[in-house]
Amino acid sequence: MTKYLILTEKPSARRNFEKALGGLSGHFADFDYELTNLRGHVMTLAEPQDQVPDTLTTQIKSWDLKDLPWDLNQFNWKRTYIVSKNPRTGKQESTKSLLDDFKKKASQGFDGIVIATDTDPSGEGDLLAWEAIDAIKWTGPVYRANFVDESEKGLRKALEHLKPILSFQEHGPLQKGLARNKWDFASMQLTRAATTLTKKQGYPFVSRQGRLKSAMILRVYQQLEAIKNYQRVPFFENRYHDENGHTYARSVNKDEAPDFRYTSQEEAQIQETLPETATPVVISTQPKETQPPKLLDLASLSAILAKEGFQAKEVAATYQKLYEAKIVSYPRTEDKTITPEQYEDLRPLVDKIAQTVGVDVSLLTRREPRKTHVQEKGAHGANRPGPVVPSSLEGLLTYGPSAPKIYEVLAKNYLAMMAENYHYTQIKAQLAELPNFTTTINQPQSQGWHLVYQDQDEEEDQTRSTQGIGQQARRFLYEGQNKKPTAPTWKWLKTFLERYNIGTGATRTNTYGELTSGKNAYMIDQKGKISLTDSGLAAAILVQDTYIANPKTTKRVFDIFDQVGRFEMTADEALHSLNVTVAHDLPIMAENVKQLENAIEKPTSYEPKEKVSGEWHGEEVTFNASFSGHRFTAEEVAQLLSGEVITFQAMSKKGKSYTAKGQLAKKRYKGKDFIGFDLILDKKKTRKMKK
C-alpha cells in the first residue's frame, strides 16, 4: 500500500488535518498516511557575506556606498537554519532539531512527501515546504495538496486530488516564491545605503526600504507635504436653493475655472444680473437601483476597523487566529468573488450567521447566487465567514480585541448580497427661467441591502432626500474654495494601492501593520489617520524619485513574480529588475539625504562615531576610533591591527578612571557581526567585586 508523509505548515494546521482524516496516521482514499508539521519557515538565506567567494566577503559585509551595488551573479543563494529565542524558555533555539526529526521520519519507508502547507498567492507556502524538503536531501516523489480553506471537507478534497511535482524547477508557485524571496533579500542593499547616508548626515535612524513599504511611506509624505503647502483660494458664485433644501447650480467640469466664479462677493454681485427668485421644474424622473457592495479583502476590513482604534497588525493577527479556528475564511487571498461551491457550503449557515450579528433574516430574500459575487473562478474565495459560526460576538474576545468587530463586519458584508437591491427614484430638475441651473435628487424607495450593511467605500450621497423639489428657488451667494488635499488615512492609502493593483489585501495589511507598530514605527495610526515619525519622514525623503518607491515600478515587480510563476521568466532573470533599481536609486538617495537637515531637527546627543580602517589578519576592517572616552593613537591603531594587546586609561560611564586592556576581536551586537575593541577583564578583580 502506498504511504505518504503529509507535511503541514505548523502544529495548528496539522491538528486540522488530523481532525479531517481521523487521526495522526491511518488510511485515506487509496493511500496510508502520517502527518507531520513545520513551524513556518525552518530555513533562511544565509548572511550576504556567506553567499559569495572569500575574496568578496569584505566588500559584501560593508555598508559603505563604494561597495554597492552587489554582483548578484556571485551569490550562491545558500540557506541556513533559523536561530531564534524561545518565548517560553528565553533560550536560543535552532530549527536544525526540527529538520533532524523531519529527516528521520521521512526515512521510514514513505513513498512520497505531500506538501500540505498554505496555498497562498505569493508562493510562500510552497517555498517554506521546499526549503525543508531540500534541507533533508529528499530525492523521492513529492506531491502538492492545494486547499482553499482548512475545513474538514476542504482538506479531504485537497488530498483526493494530489498534484505530482516533477521537479524543483518545474513547480511554478515555488519559483514565484523563490523570486520574491531573492528579490527582497537583495534589496537590503537599499536599506544599507539609506541607513548609511542617514547616519552620516547625523541622524541615528535605521532606514528600512522595500518594494511595498517605500511606496507607502513616500505616498503619505507627498500627501502631508501637499497639505502643508496648500493655500486656500476662495471663490464666489451665484446659486439658488428652494424651500426643501435643494441647491441649483451650474455644472463645472474637473479642473475647469468657469467664468461665473469670482474672487470677491462684490464682483459676483456686479458681474451677473440674475433674478432674485426662479421656478424649479422637473425635467426627468427615473427609477434606479444599486447592488450590494463587493466582498471585502483584509486591507478593506482593517481600514474599516482602524476608525474604531484597532491597529492593522492586531487585526491581521486576530484574523489569523479566527481562520485557524475556522470562524473566518483564508486571509491571504487575491479573490474578489467566491465560487458556487463555496456559496453552497455557507448556504445552510446563513440564518445562524445572521442571528449572531443581529441581522433580520427576513431581509435575506435573495438566496440564489448573484453573478456579481459568485463566479466560477478563483481559489480561496474572497474573505467571508467560515464554517464555524460563533454563538455570540462577545465570545470571540478570546481571539483578540478586534475579533467581534472583524466577524460582525465580515458577516454583514457577506449577508448583504442576499438582501434586495437598494431602490431609489432619481429626479433631475432645473430652473424654468435659468435652465443651466440644475439639481439632482435621489429619493429612497426601498433600502434593501442598506438595512444589512453600511458600505464604508460608498461615496456619501449628498443628493439623497425624501423631499421633492420646492415651489420657488431664491438666489444666494455661495463661497467655495480650491479643493484641499485629503488627510492621509489607512482607507485612503489602501485605495492608492488598489489603484495600482499592488499586493493582496493581506500583504497591504501586514506591511501597514509593520510600518505602524513597534518602537521603530515609521507611521503613527490614530484611528486610521496617518502621520509620519521622524524615521518615517527620513525614509520618505530619501526615496523621492526612486524606483523602489515608484508605484508603477512596484506593480511591475509583482507582475515579474507572476511571470516567474508562469515560467515566462526565471527567478534569476527576475533579479535584473533589482539590479536596475539599485543602480538607479543609489545616486538619487545620496542627493536626497541633503534635504534632511531642513526637515528634521538633528538629535543633539547624536554624533557619528569616528572610524579607522586597516588590514587585520589579512582582512580590510573598520572599527571605532575610540573606546570608553579614549581615542586610539596612531601607534595604538597599528598595534591593534597587528593583533597586539594594548593598555590605556579609560573612563567608565559613571565617570571613574580605570585601566583598560584589550585587543581587536570579532563581536556581535543585535544579530550583526562587527570588528571592535574587546576588553579583557581581570578575572581576579571581577571575582573580588562580586564578593
Automatic annotation (TrEMBL):
Sequence ranges assigned to domain Toprim in this UniProt record: 3-151
Enzyme class: isomerase
Entry's Gene Ontology molecular function annotations: isomerase activity
Keyword set, alphabetical order: DNA-binding, Isomerase, Topoisomerase
Listed EC numbers: 5.99.1.2
Pfam families assigned to the protein according to its UniProt record, in alphabetical order: Topoisom_bac (PF01131), Toprim (PF01751)
Occurrences of domain Topo IA-type catalytic (ranges): 170-586
Matches recorded under InterPro entries: Topo_IA (IPR000380), Topo_IA_AS (IPR023406), Topo_IA_cen (IPR013497), Topo_IA_cen_sub1 (IPR013824), Topo_IA_cen_sub2 (IPR013825), Topo_IA_cen_sub3 (IPR013826), Topo_IA_core_domain (IPR023405), Topo_IA_DNA-bd_dom (IPR003602)
Entry protein name: DNA topoisomerase IA (TopA)
